[in-house]
Design goal:
The protein is of the alpha/beta class and 194 residues long. 41% of the residues lie in helices and 8% in strands. It is built from nine helices and four strands, in the order H-E-H-H-H-E-H-E-H-H-E-H-H. Strands 2-1-3-4 form a four-stranded parallel beta sheet. It binds iron/sulfur cluster (SF4). Residues 12, 15-19, 26, 28, 87-89, 103, 105-106, 109 line the site of iron/sulfur cluster.
């Protein structure tokens, strides 16, 4: 572990920047090592991740691992995969019972320095609207579906994905090209990197 990333991770794990907005308090959940060649930028922890402190330790994680065709051991090997979400702490629930979006303070404070301390990353998976907006900026299309459908335009650096939540099961049914075209390419690239 380089001193730069080690220091950054310690600072991030001690972050209290938006503490006043977090109903369950800060508990930053992220994993990274300078050797990682795959970076996954997702949204924010849900309740189960908040409780366990393990990213993607929930049904969304199971679906994401199935998309990547990797086992849990590989997925949690931070020498290979860095897991750095747009919001490190659980943001609480909205009025409709869903999870709130990642806190807007988090990504501007932490994504640039952490990304700069991951020199071996060759592919970044942008999971969901927030990660796509932050990294693709005006290269993002008008909707998540259009951005993900244009996935070939963002390679070799980025691959946009929908969130693997059960809430997107209907989206997956409506967009069969995702499983038929994007996932085989994703799996091939991930396995080459790992
Ligand atoms: S969500 Fe991000 S900015 Fe807010 S306290 Fe947690 S680590 Fe800090």
């Amino acid at each position: 572990m380089t001193a730069a990333l080690d220091t950054l991770l310690q600072q991030a794990r001690a972050c209290r920047l938006c503490e006043a907005e977090l109903p369950f308090g800060p508990r930053p959940v992220l994993r990274a090592h300078p050797a990682a060649r795959l970076l996954i930028v997702s949204q924010a922890p849900g309740t189960r991740v908040h409780e366990t402190g393990i990213p993607f330790n929930d049904p969304s994680g199971d679906r994401l691992r199935a998309w990547l065709a990797v086992e849990r051991d590989t997925f949690y090997d931070e020498h290979r995969i860095a897991l750095v979400p747009m919001g490190f702490c659980y943001p609480g629930r909205d009025e409709r019972g869903g999870d709130k979006p990642p806190r807007p303070e988090c990504a501007p404070a932490w994504q640039p320095p952490i990304r700069a301390a991951l020199p071996r990353v060759e592919l970044t998976l942008l999971v969901g609207l927030y990660a796509q907006g932050f990294y693709l900026q005006d290269r993002r299309r008008a909707s998540l579906t259009e951005t993900v459908r244009a996935w070939r335009d963002y390679l070799p650096d980025f691959l946009p994905l929908p969130h693997p939540s059960w809430r997107n099961t209907a989206w997956l049914k409506r967009n069969p090209w995702f499983e038929e075209e994007l996932l085989p390419e994703l799996r091939q690239r991930v396995h080459t990197l790992l």
